[in-house]
Each structure stands twice: as structure tokens, then as C-alpha cells.
Write a structure and sequence with these properties.
With 155 residues, the protein is an alpha+beta fold. The protein contains four helices and eight strands; from the N terminus they run H-H-E-E-E-E-H-H-E-E-E-E.
Length: 155
């Protein structure tokens, strides 16, 4: 991240509380459109993906004062936190795990659809999930060794 980007981010973070930033960047309804094995699940891994049937085509809505969705996501009083992550920190560092053959986080992130150098990441404070904004209308999150893709609803 260059100095100008960092300065802008710090200005925005102080000028707008995390809740307002979450509302601006992540606000609205998102539909789960895809699920795939996480990249760290492979021939060298002892991990197995566990797909959640309830997430197929699920709709999650990030509102100013709550998150609407299935029991996995519903949150009556979120404490939004937005951070900027580099590829090696996405999915709790899962893209940078040499023990599982993951040594090129930037390239792996790009294959998953991430566009850019850093990515806004939302935590709601209700679930141990991080929602990574891969592109303006695409969120990815990991759960049980599966990467789920959400697209902004209505597009």
C-alpha cells in the first residue's frame, strides 16, 4: 500500500465510523451464487471441505443497524469493523500457507476474482466470518474450507 492510499484510508476511518463505512461499501442485499473448495484444500492437505446446503442461494442483507439472513448471518446488533487486507491475510492467512502448498497469495487471490492490491474486509461482531470485497459487486467469505461467492442482489 502506498503512502497516499494509507493517508486516504486513515482520513476516511477517522471521518466515518466503521458502521457508516460498512453501510457505504457493503450495504444492501447479497446473494450466494457460488461455492468452491478452498484453494488450500488439495492433494497435500488433510483438510476436507464441508458445504452448507442452507447457504445455497442464500440472501444476506447488511443494514445500518442489523444483518438480515439465515441463522448463520442474522445479527440484530452488529458492531461493524472494516479493515483493508492484503492477499496474504485473506481467509485468515489461508492463501499464504507453505505447509499446504500455498506460496503465491497474490496470484491465488486473483484466480479467486480479487481485483486490486488490498481489499475491504467486513466483520459484523456476531459471527466469526470475514466478508472480503473482491470487486465492487462481489464478496467472498470462507467457511469450513469452502469459499463462497456473493453477488450484489439486483444486478
Amino acid at each position: 500500500m502506498d503512502g497516499k492510499t494509507l493517508a486516504l484510508g486513515l482520513c476516511l476511518a477517522t471521518a466515518f465510523p466503521a458502521q457508516a463505512m460498512a453501510q457505504a461499501v457493503f450495504a444492501g442485499s447479497w446473494t450466494v451464487t457460488d461455492a468452491q473448495d478452498a484453494p488450500w484444500v488439495g492433494p497435500k492437505s488433510d483438510l476436507k471441505p464441508s458445504y452448507e446446503a442452507a447457504l445455497r442461494n442464500a440472501v444476506i442483507t447488511f443494514r445500518k443497524n442489523r444483518v438480515d439472513g439465515s441463522s448463520w448471518f442474522a445479527c440484530p446488533k452488529p458492531h461493524y469493523r472494516v479493515t483493508e487486507l492484503e492477499p496474504d491475510s485473506l481467509f485468515e492467512g489461508g492463501l499464504d500457507d507453505p505447509g499446504r502448498g500455498m506460496t503465491m497469495p497474490k496470484e491465488t487471490a486473483a484466480k479467486l476474482g480479487f481485483v486490486g492490491e488490498t481489499f475491504p474486509t467486513l466483520e459484523t461482531g456476531c459471527a466469526e466470518l470475514s466478508f472480503h470485497l473482491a470487486a465492487p459487486d462481489t464478496i467472498l467469505f470462507g467457511l469450513n474450507n469452502v469459499i463462497y461467492t456473493m453477488k450484489r442482489s439486483g444486478l
